[in-house]
Amino acid sequence: MTEQPVAPIGFGLDELALQRAIDRARARGVESVSSDEVVDVFGDLDPTPELVEAVRATLLARGIALDEDDTDLIDVDEIVIVAHDPLLADLDDDDLVERRLRARFRPSTRETMKLNAPTPGSSDSTRMYLREIGRVALLTGPEEVVLAKQIERGTAASERLADLAASGELDALDTDERRLLTRYARKGEDAKAELTQANLRLVVSIAKRYAGRGMPLLDLVQEGNFGLMRAVEKFDWTKGFKFSTYATWWIRQSISRAIADQARTIRIPVHMVEAINRMHRIQREMAQQLEREPTVEELAAKVDLPVERVREMLRISQDPLSLDQPYGDEGDAAYGDFIEDKGAEAPADVAARTMLHAAVEEALGELNEREQALVRMRFGLDDGQPRTLEDVGREFGVTRERVRQIETKTLAKLRHEQFSQKLHAYLEGE
């Protein structure tokens, strides 16, 4: 049965990347794709809820599900289950969830996590950071919604206060209303912190997948945290996403962009990085299956790209190498020492020319000053500019014919075996 082309998804998304993800899923005999496989659909675009929904809807229209299970990213053994308290039975659902959240995120915990954030090069701080984020329990769906509502209400309150301050009407605002808006704004910021902290382990889990691509793990975690904070800002609970699913898009994109921008001396566009990573992944799989490195043609057929395109991607993916980088175990030589200088003259030629110059000078030393000057001017031995008979004649104040006579006599003297014997060897070498 012939596959129909993917319906246009718009928004500037990469439809070909989505089609490739669908084709790979069907080739494996499955009817679902992971978010890992379609993350490059976004390219340089931010994965807003509308774009994520567009991708999911397009996949569903083709009979392909978007696998949003993130249990492999999180250590489920560390989940803290809050016991049901019968004293809270008469509270509504949101109040019950909020009470549990309040018990889970105490100020002391938040302050401890801030103090123990990882610092590059400090393994102790790294272990402490991982230990602290492991103490924060994961959120349930209802808990995420409560926090999202608080963030939404807090954002609206903050904007309201900012507008009143800009218009000069803040002082005239009723005290109770001002206090209420301030409380909403503060609770919104606290909710952002709680939603962020509950998903820090998700960042570490995702960052581990990008290790070995030119950036230290701590830097990857830091970049992933930036993406997580952006996801907290953009999360729309009305779309029906689990927050961890939505945040995964932002975290991956933030890390991918950081690798593209920082990991290499020469920046590679994000969409190209994803394509190169996929090509290298397939290349490793083929090497294991074939028990040898695949040829460019075999690799191109597997990734479904033209051979020239694969060659270009292989060339682009090569890591730049510093010429000052030490070579060998001793470290007493650099790579630059072994690079041939195409414009440099061979040492043997330099030595031969030096010896020839010395031999010529020795031969000229047997002439008188006038003869030496004439030969040097006529053949340009000093400045590389030969002079005509007329030029030399004007210099010496004699006729052209007289210059020719002196030149003939001088060259005959130099051809004598007494002077020319050493010069013959250089003529024979040529």
Automatic annotation (TrEMBL):
A GO MF annotation of the entry reads: DNA binding
A single GO BP term for this record reads:
DNA-templated transcription initiation
CDD domains assigned to the protein according to its UniProt record, in alphabetical order: Sigma70_r4
Q: Which keywords does UniProt give here?
A: Cytoplasm, DNA-binding, Sigma factor, Transcription, Transcription regulation
- Any Pfam family hit: Sigma70_r2
Q: Where is the RNA polymerase sigma-70 domain?
A: 219-232, 388-414
PROSITE patterns associated with the record: SIGMA70_1, SIGMA70_2
For this protein, the record's Gene3D superfamilies field holds: 1.20.120.1810, RNA Polymerase Primary Sigma Factor (1.10.601.10), Winged helix-like DNA-binding domain superfamily/Winged helix DNA-binding domain (1.10.10.10)
Task: Give the family, as the similarity comment puts it.
Answer: Belongs to the sigma-70 factor family.
Please give the name of this protein: Unannotated protein
The species is: freshwater metagenome
